[in-house]
Design a protein that fits this description.
The chain has about 170 residues and is α/β, with parallel strands linked by helices. It has a single domain, classed as 3-Layer(aba) Sandwich (Rossmann fold). It contains five helices and five strands. A five-stranded mixed β-sheet has the order 2-1-3-5-4. It is globular. The chain starts with 7 loop residues before the first strand and ends in a 15-residue tail after the last helix.
């Protein structure tokens, strides 16, 4: 996959047909529409297939140096629309289901990928109140407002000098 030849890979996870679960794909769509990231940065909407992507990365000879995952989570100590930076080493086994990243079924793969190679892995997520059990496309207002803020944070983290907005009141 050509994305694996990029130095940095930004991956949006989630299902846009299930309300706020579509946050990751919305961030990728926003970054793509801005068309301002450098050629060494790959953007990928993994939808609900993040496990398959991580499996491919584990088997690939060439992998990015930096992987950024974006998803929606439910965290009891956060406000709707709040952006969280999640450290995979700090999620206790008994708390995995509290976060989501699709119940973090990818945690073992992420740790294995990180431990088996020289790759920096970051996880950014937005707190949601609820992800519907039935089809309901569209982000709620707080989550929709978090899209440009996370785009800005990602760009700042990647040392992109262009700033989209100045609202950085996030929990990162």
């Amino acid at each position: 996959m050509d994305l694996f030849n990029k130095d940095i890979l930004v991956v949006g996870c989630g299902n846009p047909l299930l309300g706020d679960d579509g946050f990751g794909p919305a961030v990728i769509e926003s970054l793509e529409a801005q068309n301002i990231l450098a050629d060494h940065i790959g953007l990928f909407d993994a939808g609900t297939s993040v496990r398959e992507l991580l499996f491919d990365l584990l088997l690939s000879r060439k992998i990015p140096k930096h992987l950024i995952l974006i998803d929606a989570v439910h965290h009891s100590n956060a406000l709707s629309g709040e952006i969280l930076r999640i450290d995979i080493d700090q999620i206790p086994e008994n708390k995995v289901a509290d976060y989501s990243l699709h119940q973090f079924p990818t945690m073992n793969m992420l740790k294995e990928l990180r431990d088996a190679s020289v790759i920096d892995i970051e996880i950014y997520a937005v707190h949601v109140d609820d992800i519907p059990q039935e089809v309901r496309p569209g982000l709620t207002r707080p989550v929709k407002e978090a899209v440009p803020r996370l785009c800005n944070l990602i760009r700042l983290a990647l040392n992109d000098p262009v700033v989209i907005c100045s609202d950085n009141k996030e929990s990162v």
